[in-house]
Amino acid sequence: MKIKKILAMNWTEISQGFGVGVGFINFYVLYYSWHISWGISFAIALGLGYLASIFLEDYIGDKFDKSNAEKLSAAVEQFEEK
């Protein structure tokens, strides 16, 4: 339960870190394995890393926000019943 709270609180930083990781992996594959020039590899890796972080922040971040909203509304309903 505590891990879920940490993930929910720091989700923006986690998704940005994941995007950086995706960018590094893409750069390595494009530059060292496929021998594409470093400028093109860097541009593609930067774009794909950015898209990965945006996807994670929007898609999974919305799930965290939805679960937090459900918990909050349940707490309000429980308070109103008393």
How do you describe this structure in short?
The chain has 3 helices and no strands.
Description of the structure:
Helices cover 91% and strands 0% of the residues. It is mostly helical. It has one domain. Helix 2 (11-33) packs antiparallel against helix 3. The model has no long low-confidence stretch (mean pLDDT 82).
Structural topology:
Blueprint: H1 2-9, H2 11-33, H3 38-81
Helix pairs in contact: 2-3
Radius of gyration: 19 Å
Distance between the termini: 27 Å
Number of domains: 1
Overall geometry comes to: rod-shaped
Tally of DSSP β-strands: 0
Proportion of residues in helical segments: over 70%
Instruction: Describe the main β-sheet briefly.
Output: none
Report mean pLDDT, rounded to a whole number: 82
Number of helices: 3
Order of helix and strand elements from N to C terminus: HHH
Question: What percentage of the residues does DSSP assign to strands (E)?
Answer: under 5%
Oligomer: single chain
Low-pLDDT runs: none
Helix vs. strand class? mainly alpha
List keywords for this structure.
82 residues, mainly alpha, 3 helices, 0% strand, rod-shaped
